[in-house]
Amino acid sequence: MKYLILIFLLFSSVNYSYATSKKEALYQNGKPLHDWSLSAGEWVAWMKSCQGNGGFAKTIRDEVAKLSWPDYKKLSTGVNKFEDRFIAGRCVDSEVQKGKSYLHSYVGELSFLVQEKTGITNSRSRDTQINDNQITETKNNDSIETKLSKLKYLYNEKLITKKEYDEKRKEILDEM
Q1: Total count of domains within the chain
Q2: What residues contact residue 128 under an 8 Å CB cut-off, 6+ apart?
Q3: Same domain, yes or no: 98 and 36
Q4: Is residue 10 a part of any domain in this protein?
Q5: Is residue 2 one of the residues assigned to a domain?
Q6: Are residues 163 and 103 in the same domain?
Q7: pLDDT at 122
Q8: Percent of the chain with pLDDT over 90
Q9: pTM of this structure
Q10: Pair 137, 121: CB distance under 8 Å
């Protein structure tokens, strides 16, 4: 019986991050490319704690691991930091959508940074879908919906003023 418990504890403590490897990453060595990797990890952990969103969180981690190993390690640090401090809380749909939007933007921007740094186009992201939305490979090719959600995030976080938000929103909508 104690061996059964030991085996259970061993498998339950294994983090699913071991499912990916450094050699699969497009960018493998150096400093993390994205400044948000740590906070994105906290969002991933929070998303993982929300019932029904664990698959989305795992997909984000896997996509980051395929893009940039240093950012994946930083993201994992953020996941662990969150998990050490918090337990699953109330997950309001609007907050979950905000988290998904933030993480979509983060992975899209990371993909752009990896492409810029390595010169390698991330064809893998075409094969991996996140919640029925493909990650856009470059900032210039972002859909209007993605640009508007990024803009809304910046405004909600009080990183831009209402006037800046309105001007940029009009600019984006005029692209249609």
Answers
A1: 2
A2: 59, 62, 63, 66, 135
A3: yes
A4: no
A5: no
A6: no
A7: 57
A8: 15
A9: 0.59
A10: yes
